[in-house]
Amino acid sequence: MTVVSSPPPPSGPAVGTVPGEPPTPATDARPPDGGTPAGRPAAHVPELHGLRGLALALVVAFHLFGDGRVSGGVDVFLVLSGFLATGSLLRRAERRELRLGEHYGRTFARLVPPALLVLAATAALAWWVMPRGTWMQTGREILASALYYVNWEMISGQLAYGAAGPQTSPLQHFWSMSVQGQFFLAWPVVVLVVVALARTARISSRGLLLVVAGGTTVASFVFAQALHGADQPVAYFHTWARFWELGLGGFLALLLPWLRLPDALRPLLGWAGLGLVVSSGFVLDGGALFPGPWALWPVAGALLVLLGSGGSAGWGPRGLLRVAPLRFVADISYALYLWHWPLLIAYLHHTGRDHVDLTGAALIMAVSVVLSWLTTQLVGNPAQRFRERFGGVRALVAVTVCVGLVAGGTVAGLAGLERRDAALLAAAEDLASSAAEDSGPAEYPGALALGDAYTEPVPDGVPVLPAPAVAARDRPAVDGDGCIEGSSHTAGSDRPLMCVLHDERDPERVVVMVGDSHTIQWTPAMTEVAKEEGWQALLLARRGCRLAEPVEPPDPTNMCWAWRANAMAALEQMRPDAVMVVGSRTSPTEPGDVVDPPEVLAWQRLAESGIRVVTLRDNPRFGFDVPACVEEAPDAGCSRPRDEVYSPVNPVRGAEGVPPSAVHLDLTRFICAELLCEGVVGNVLIYRDDNHMTATYAATLAHPLHQALRAKAGWLFAEPAGAPLADVSDPQVPPGT
User: Fold this and answer.
1) More exposed terminus of the chain, fewer Cβ within 10 Å: N or C?
2) Which ranges are annotated Pro residues under compositional bias (predicted)?
3) From residue 123, how far is each of 11, 169, 178, 417 by CA, in Å?
4) Coil, strand or helix: which one is 638?
């Protein structure tokens, strides 16, 4: 993690904040008696170095031995970074010693070389053990990590923070380093501006910076709570949603010189803070709760330890935080933080497991410690000596050159991958286009291979399309048109975004598809149906949100409910001929599919407005990445038993309150065989991840969907079809009902 540095203290070991911080004196700004003029550097405070080691030990232990739970250690790092950086920057700015070029060189000279080493090693590990389909995203994250914006890359890639697993990014942990890197690029500028304004106005620079830090911290905390309620995965990585943790540390650093705490109180504060820090990972599910208000648990713990540091009382936590193991972990903490996570992800890919066992965790821990010690001794410390010998500006030039070389090499590699992917995607797009027009090649029947009319054996020996390496990019065309709402769209929009799948000057019918990504994935099939029938086909979608009515008053900050209200109002105003939704919901772990009552309430409201509802039965969800499975073990099946995925009867038929006017399409026989739901059907890869269909496979569902609509939704057709095909009728319900 990135931090700001200050000159080493005149004696005693340096105190850092987070893994990798250059030596920094304690900025407690008080001697042990607690009373010193504001701004005077304090003596070395050993609690801070020990707290850094403890926080890192918690991070690694919970990642390896705690089933991936968030320990709160990273939140402690953020507080410590803001605390030490702010005090150091203010003192140097007041002495007119803060020069940005020198400062940035001092800060990043020790941080960047170990990070670049680990990024290079991660690239090698990805090439060795990870599926080809992950290389492009991993390359983007390597580039973003080297340039300190990987948290935004994860937001744009819609990656949620999660426990280690085969689908987890090997660079997920770099998000916090990027947040701090951005903070430490911007905060020195803020401090310089504040100090300059204070000099001009002849007021206290510490007081003015206290106001600025306090105001921005409060604003960040309010923003974080709003975004956490609306889109927690985005909030987890968002720089501004995390600033308040850094800001609180900085605020305390500015306030501390004016505080006078009795020596007898400090040990109590220290032990209380230590208890909060250690207990956080055991009590809270930080991956789901942070950076919401519960993040105050570890943050408050860190603040209390800082408040309790120093003093002459001998029964505080200082002795515990000075034990040799914690000092050793603190000394290698930056490198240990860098190494442990990619090694963990590589281990899971190499062993084919979805979690690490005790033996594997111990092995990863041992290898991580050895590599971290070597990295610190052979890379981190020499880089620091280079900075001390040649100065911060030259160090900054050297760091910039190194980052440029890594970034340039990564960009070149990504360009090569892009050329490969473009050729593979073109083959899949050609297949999707021909399949939608019922003229697909015989080698790739896709969903039609499961129909009664298909009597020939599926050809062997042909490569699967889309290739697993590009399956993640095989998305519906509408997915990139900017008309699907996501986290960047606020709840205040009265009119939701709407996609036009197919338009007609004088359409025979208007059909609106509504829902989340499981609705979006059906758009290639529905678009072809609309083209053939002369319909207007539209899409109302927000990622992660299905159309539903609240059972009880909804959370006003939840953007899903705001979108649902707006979408319902738009539908009632439009009064389309049909609204198509995914009616059931499957699970990767629980048997059978279910119907959510709030969704049924929405169907009732539509029916009361004279709008008929067409439901589609959900597709299977898997507990593993299907393209990776198909790439690594194409003959292994990569399947789930059908009776594990689906209930014996389509659950929408027995759900209470479903309006009689609704019709229900069960096309699962074109996705799953009689006994198994597999990853590949008719030489076409069904899934682009663990639960979303590829656009190519969805295109092969156009004909089955068309026939199902003719059989069940005759009112949509000027001339209702005759006897429906056996392929599309539900096995439990007479055709046409």
Assistant:
1) C
2) 1-12
3) 41, 12, 19, 13
4) coil
What is the model's pLDDT at position 488? 58
Residues with Cβ within 8 Å of 664's Cβ and at least 6 positions away in sequence, in order, are: 583, 614, 615, 617, 650, 652, 653, 712, 730
DSSP-H helix ranges across 149-295: 150-156, 174-201, 205-230, 232-237, 239-255, 265-283, 286-289
Residues forming beta bridges with residue 579, ordered by sequence position: 512, 613
349 neighbors 132 (Cβ within 8 angstroms): no
Token pair recorded at residue 299: 């943050």
User: What's the CA gap between 689 and 158, in Å, rounded?
Assistant: 13
Q: What is the pLDDT of residue 722?
A: 39
Percent of the chain with pLDDT over 70: 87
What pTM was computed for the model? 0.80
Mean pLDDT of 103-128: 95
Taking the alpha carbons at both ends of the chain, their separation in whole angstroms is 61
Residue positions counted in the chain? 737
pLDDT at 22: 37
The mean pLDDT value for 150-167 works out to 76
CA 254, 255, 260: angle at the middle one, nearest 5?
135
- Confidence (pLDDT) at 353: 86
The SS3 of residue 649 is: coil
Give the 3-state secondary structure of residue 39. coil
203-209, long-range: CB within 8 Å, 24+ apart, which pairs? 205/90, 205/93, 205/94, 206/38, 206/39, 206/90, 206/254, 206/257, 209/86, 209/90, 209/254
DSSP for 405-439 reads: HHHHHHHHHHHHHHHHHHHHHHHHHHHHHHHHTT-
What's the one-letter identity of residue 355?
Answer: H
| Three-state secondary structure call for residue 663 | strand
Which domains, from first to last, does the chain contain? 46-413 (no CATH), 437-725 (3.40.50)
Distance CA 391, CA 133 (A): 43
**Which residues, 6 or more positions from 159, have their beta carbon under 8 angstroms from its beta carbon?**
169, 172, 233
Query: Which of 89-98, 573-582, 635-644, 668-677 has the least mean pLDDT?
Result: 635-644
Which token pair is 38? 């504001």
Classify strands 510-515 and 536-541 as parallel, antiparallel or unpaired. parallel
Q: Which residues touch 409 (CB under 8 Å, ≥6 apart)?
A: none
Pair of tokens at residue 669: 């026989």
The model's pLDDT over 648-695, given as tens digits with 9 standing for 90+, comes to 999 999 899 999 999 999 999 999 999 999 999 999 999 999 999 999
User: What's the token pair of residue 383?
Assistant: 């880089």
Mean pLDDT on 23-32: 35
What mean pLDDT value characterizes the chain?
Answer: 87
Q: How many CA atoms lie within 13 A of 461 on its CB side?
A: 0
Query: What CA–CA distance (Å, rounded) separates 172 from 615?
Result: 37
- Scan for tokens 């069904």, then name that residue: 686
